Amino acid sequence: MHSPARRCRIAPSSRYPKDKKAAGNESSTLVSNRPGHLSDQTMKHIKITSRQYTYLARLEEETAPQTCAWFLRKLPFKTHISQGRWSGKAVFIRLGTTGAEVAYENPTSYPKTGDIVMCPGDATQGGGEIYMPYGPNAFACEYGKLAGNHFLSIIEGEQSLPQFGELVHWHGAQEILFELAD
Fold first, then answer.
1. Cβ contact 120:103 at 8 Å
2. Distance between CA 73 and CA 70 in Å, rounded?
3. What pTM value is reported for the model?
């Protein structure tokens, strides 16, 4: 039997840099007019579907290349998404130790609605998760603050995230599918 302390990874401050948003950099949008930077048209997109809700998300390959590469290898990814218990208005997918090889790249504990983050799994601490906020939130577990790599940004359908989140909150875990968009 696992001890409760192994259910979530508490992100120690020495393992990742200060949260970009806390430092005043609120932007997670890539600049596409600089030489060498990808435009939105050349980036890969992910279609996310759960019941009647469909979202289009942009992979953040410049700021989270390892996380994006890991996620692309999992596609199509069909699983269940549940209400977060400690983080406010957010849903999450348990990953177990899947993704343990992914390092922290651009971690945040305060993703905005439409940002999707991945907390790497860890065999000694019970695993990671994919976290998707639909309103005010702070990425955490019962033992403290967590951090995850911001690797997807919802660019279409974001306005229905609060309704989707409330569906999960009041009606339980929902099946969700992530696949490469056409």
1. yes
2. 5
3. 0.77
User: Residues 154-173: pLDDT tens digits?
Assistant: 999 999 999 999 999 999 99
All domains of the chain in start order, with CATH: 43-180 (2.40.100.20)
41-to-32, 38, 175 alpha-carbon distances in Å? 10, 8, 29
Asked whether 30 and 37 are in contact (CB, 8 A), the reply is: yes
**Is 47 in a helix, a strand, or coil?**
strand
- The 10s digit of each residue's pLDDT in 91-106 is 999 998 888 889 999 9
Q: Which of 182, 166, 138 is nearest to 53 (CA)?
A: 166
Three-class SS of residue 126?
A: coil
Here the tokens at position 32 are 């596409």
Cis peptide before 111 (omega within 30 of 0): no
The SS3 call for residue 108 is strand
